[in-house]
Structures are given as C-alpha cells and as structure tokens.
Amino acid sequence: MGKPIVAVVGKPNVGKSTFFNKIAGRRISIVEDKPGVTRDRIYTDVEWLNNKFTLIDTGGIEPDSKDIIISQMKTQAEIAMDTANVIVFMVDGKTGVTTADEEIANMLRRTQKPIILVVNKVDSTKLPDHFYDFYTLGLGEPIPISSVNALNLGDLLDKIVDKFPDNVDTDYDEDIIKVAVIGKPNVGKSSLINSILGENRVIVSDIAGTTRDAIDTPFEFNEDKYVFIDTAGIRRKSKVYENIEKYSVLRSLTAIERSDVCLIMIDAQEGVTEQDKKIAGYAHEAGRASIIVVNKWDLIEKNNYTYNEFSKHIRNELAYMSYAPILFISAKTNQRVNKVLEYIKYVSNQHSMRISTGALNDLISEAVLLNQPPSDKGKRLKIYYGTQVAVKPPKFVLFVNDVELAHFSYIRYLENQIRQNYNFEGTPITIECKAKKQK
To answer: Is 10 marked within a binding site?
Structure first.
C-alpha cells in the first residue's frame, strides 16, 4: 500500500548513514566516524529507474547491550524492520563477520521479509579474503559495495527494486474521496473511523500501537464514496516506548501520499505536541486538504472561554495551517462525529475548486488597485495576468515583469484576497511567479 519502504539496518559504524546520504543525493543523516551517531530513524523519498520508494536509515543495533540509548536504537531498528517491505542488512567488509552480525541475522530471518545482505567498505574490485565468510550468515549472496566511492550502488538498487511486492499501489476511482486519519498513536484514530462507520471494522484498544498496518476501509454515505486510511501507531502491545511515536510519522507519510483529505487528530488532553506539528507539517507540505480534529473533548473541563482558548492555542502552534477548519469531537461519545463527513466533503470540494482565468484576473486587478505591488530601486512589480494551472491543491501562476520583485508578503496578500473571494477553506493554495518574456 503506497510506496515500498526499504530499511537499512546493521550494527553501529558499518556505514549506513553514508550509504543513505549517497542514495538520497544529499547529506541528510549525520555522518561521523563514531558508533551510535544515528539514534533515530531518518527517512527520505528515493527514485531509481522510475521505481519510487521510501528509504529509512536506522540507528545501529547492538543486540545484547544494556545501555539505554543502544537498546532504544535497537527498538528503532526493529520498528523500521516491522514496517519495511525490503530490509538491507549492512555489514563491515573490513572487519569481517562478528557475533553481533550473526545475532542480527537471526533477528532478521524471523521477520519473514526480503533481506539483501550488503558488505560495505569494499573499496576495490578485489574482494577481501574474509568476504566469503559472510555467506555463513545464511542470508544469500552478499553484495560488495563502497558507499564512499559509490561502487556497485546501481547493482544494489536493481536488487532492491526487484524485491518490491506487486501490490504496493492501490488505485481508486477519481470520485472516491480518500481520507487519511493521521496523528500520534492512541489519539483515537481507529475509534473515530468505527464511530463514523457505525460498526467495528478496525480494532480499537487503549494500548497505543494496536494497528500494525494502514487499513483501507471503503464507505458510502448519501451516494458519496469514501475510503478511510487508518494509520494508528504500531508495535507490539507488550512494550511501548516513548520514542516509538516516531513510527507514526512514517506511517502517516505513506497514508498522506495516498490521500485527498487528512484528518489531523489532536488529543484534547495533551494539546498540540511537537509530534502533532511534525505530522501536520507533512500534510501541509504534501498539499492535502486538511481538517484539525480535536478528539476526547468530552474529557475537558470547560467554561465560557475553553473553546476559544483551545482554538487560539491550535492556531498559534499550527500557524501555517490557518486555512484548516477545527472540529472538536469525542469519538467515544459520538459528540459531533456526524459533522466529520460533512467537513470532509466540503474541504474536498474546496481542494478541487477551479477559478476561471477571467475571474482570477478581475480579482488580481482589483487587489492591485487596493494595494500597489512593491518596488525595488525604482522598479515596480507588474502582474500581467494570472491563471490557475492545477487543483488538489489549487495552484496559480502569475506572469510578471521580474520574479525578484515578487516579495513573499505581497504574494501572501494576493493569497488572502483569493481566499476572501473564493474561500478555499481546508486546502493550501500555491502561487508561483514566472517572468513573462518581452517581445
């Protein structure tokens, strides 16, 4: 479902981050010649020969370490392995097979996932004498590479994409509204879907991390068709670490990519947390229609100011999403849950709305008369005309005399004028300026 996920795992200091950065094409992971630098999973979108996938870098695994940081890194790697379609197991070609490698190999075999054994730091075409020892790990033919010198990386990427499952993409008809329910674990995502459906199709539990994979639930209401993508947190019920919540970001990324509308769920008892801001930011950057859904509102003691104060708190913390409506609900008591579908349909329509070129240019002309464009060194911005070039999200292109004169503040002013006239509530809009070539 969605793009395939590839996790790179191995003991510390085998070169996972160097490999990750080389494949990503830019320096994302911290690279330092010291074990334990990459403590959390880091991920990026990658494309190889028209195959798109998400690559996860993980902290090194030391299976028997009692150190709390090392054990948390092990947990992070386990989470990455849990969600990956393909696992790249990286070992050090200079040191040979170690006890830690053997224990990690045993751990990986239990995942039942496709595993590619990669021997890093093989910096020439001549293989080291101990190279063939890596066959004893029982994970098939080892692939020698050099992340630093980019040796054999193409062959490795070919093998990775060959391992992808056939059913990674799920296409739905255009008239079906795809809704991703995103947020931290245990915020009530599954409960909300069950409340909307009126039946228990998704497991609901008070233990964070019950839903291990995104679950698609088709649903029809008043002749409108929806698909809910539940992205509840992950992990076994037995142990839930605080930093496991980072898994929800990865799961949310996959769901956001497949969605039209995102329900960004916030726990009323906790308010907007850093994790919430990170997840909401991905929905915003992806250009998805969004609704901020504050759940567990029934558990909050209220007075005449509670609603306004909480709304202000959300607007302050998620200032970049001022366009997103806020809905206060209780999935447990069904309070205002009946409004959710109404909001989804509304923001979906806004997300796909188109303004005619004539109407847009009338609006721009009036906006320019009300507030003259900025000038720089005697040269003033001129907007010749504008047009809407895309929907989902709405995108506008303005043809101007000089792109450098199109200051951010004036573009924001024009966006506000468009919103005042045409609303676009619930959806980000983008405005791009292009220089019109003079004849």
So the answer is: yes
Question: Residue 267's beta-bridge partner residues?
Answer: 295
Give 176's strand partners.
225
Is CATH 3.40.50.300 the right assignment for the domain spanning 5-162? yes
> Binding site annotation covers 148?
no
Residue 294 is labelled as binding a ligand: no
User: Is 298 known as a binding-site position?
Assistant: yes
Q: Is 142 annotated as a binding residue?
A: no
* CATH class, 176-351 region: alpha beta
Cα(1)–Cα(96) distance, integer angstroms: 37
The answer to the question of whether 25 is labelled as a binding residue is: no
Answer yes or no: is 227 a known binding residue: no
Is 376 marked within a binding site? Answer: no
β-pair partners for 264 = 182, 292
- The answer to whether the annotation marks 152 as part of a ligand binding site is no
Domains of the chain, by residue range, sit at 5-162, 176-351, 357-435
Task: Give average pLDDT by consecutive 10-residue segment, the chain, 439 residues.
Answer: 77 83 61 39 72 75 57 59 83 88 84 89 84 90 88 88 71 83 86 81 48 65 85 41 49 78 96 89 92 96 94 95 96 93 96 96 96 89 95 96 92 96 96 81
Q: What is the pTM of this model?
A: 0.65
- DSSP state string for 146-207: BTTTTBTHHHHHHHHHHTS-TT------TTEEEEEEE-STTSSHHHHHHHHHTS--S---SS
What's residue 128's pLDDT? 81
Report the topology of domain 357-435.
GMP Synthetase; Chain A, domain 3 (3.30.300)
Residues 24-65: tens digit of each pLDDT: 775 444 344 443 333 344 667 778 887 888 887 776 555 565
Flag whether 120 is marked binding: yes
Structure token digits, residue 275: 């994790």
Q: Give, for 276, the enclosing helix (H) or strand (E).
A: helix 274-285
